[in-house]
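Hello support,

Our group uses your service weekly, and this is the first time we've seen a run hang past the timeout. The protein is Glucose-1-phosphate adenylyltransferase. I'm not sure whether the cause is the sequence or the server load. Input pasted verbatim:
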Amino acid sequence: MPTSTAAAARAMAYVLAGGRGSRLKELTDRRAKPAVYFGGKARIIDFALSNALNSGIRRIGVATQYKAHSLIRHMQRGWNFFRPERNESFDILPASQRVSETQWYEGTADAVYQNIDIIEDYGVEYMVILAGDHVYKMDYEWMLQQHVDSGADVTIGCLEVPRMEATGFGVMHVNDKDEILAFVEKPAHPPGIPDKPDFALASMGIYVFHTKFLLDALRRDAADPNSSRDFGKDIIPYIVQNGKAVAHRFAKSCVRSDFEHEPYWRDVGTIDAYWQANIDLTAIVPELDIYDKSWPIWTYAEITPPAKFVHDDEDRRGSATSSVVSGDCIISGASLNKSLLFTGVRANSFSKLEGAVILPNVKIGRRAQLKNVVIDHGVVIPEGLVVGEDPDLDAKRFRRTESGICLITQPMIDKLDI
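Update from on-call engineer: The timeout came from a worker crash unrelated to the input. Re-ran successfully.
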């Protein structure tokens, strides 16, 4: 384990949560990607925040920008337990024209630069820069300790991925000490790892800095008129060329229960990936253990009654197999298979759900037949609606991916001629 003089106690986690996540299509029409629901009761951002809290970091800042209301409301409700008298802080930092009256956050680096005065006031020794839109469990103390021990200017969290699957990532070319020799953005031929030539090190968008070094780098970057104000495009390549950058392998700090055999990290940034990661949780032994009490995923815990299953007739039985069902759900004569239901779902008689990811407060009408769907918050599914049997019809009415997953929103339902 990390040493008792934990660097995390002297660190601030700064979460970049301003992005829309446009590949999630209509799921992010009303909310930023970090605010999208995940896993039955959480939001995507809860993973980065929980990792920071569980790692021992007690100062956290979250930069928001795109359609941030539901994200801010979630954090105000679920993350308001930090106490200043215990040297704890939780700052929500919306883009608020703090540098000029016309300038919002112009990039990931600018989203930190515009709040330098707030960071300096806390006097933290280290900064952990995090993306707020990935699903994983990680103890940042291991990464902080490596940063201190190596004397690096920046330590970059990296995934080991099959080499030719790394073409969509920022890839680290490292030596046998994991010192970064070059940072290559989306290379056609990714460089292999010295000890694993068939694998490449892909950036996770997680960076550790000494605070003074980071603030100096941000000021230098802000003075460069040619910069795009981005960590991946500007700050990191500059340090790789002019300083010491070291890779931290995710496998070293990934938190795993006894049931998790491989390091788990997902960018749930497409409808297919989002559906798959949620449905994966319905497996007997899922790759991600959200039941691990030693590393809880903190979130806004609504006060809800238990889930309820009613009716027990031959063709009208409230039942669920290989499914995750959250509080305040009533399965009234409906059958579920390999589905995940968020809080407050009502599934009415004779309806059948298979491979369904149902967001909060959805009402499913009688005799609806829904297969391989993602249904947005608050949607009312009309009686007898069939999805998942006729691909051409589904594509005309809903957002259907090439792999056959249908995203359904209320505006799509309102346009139906029923």
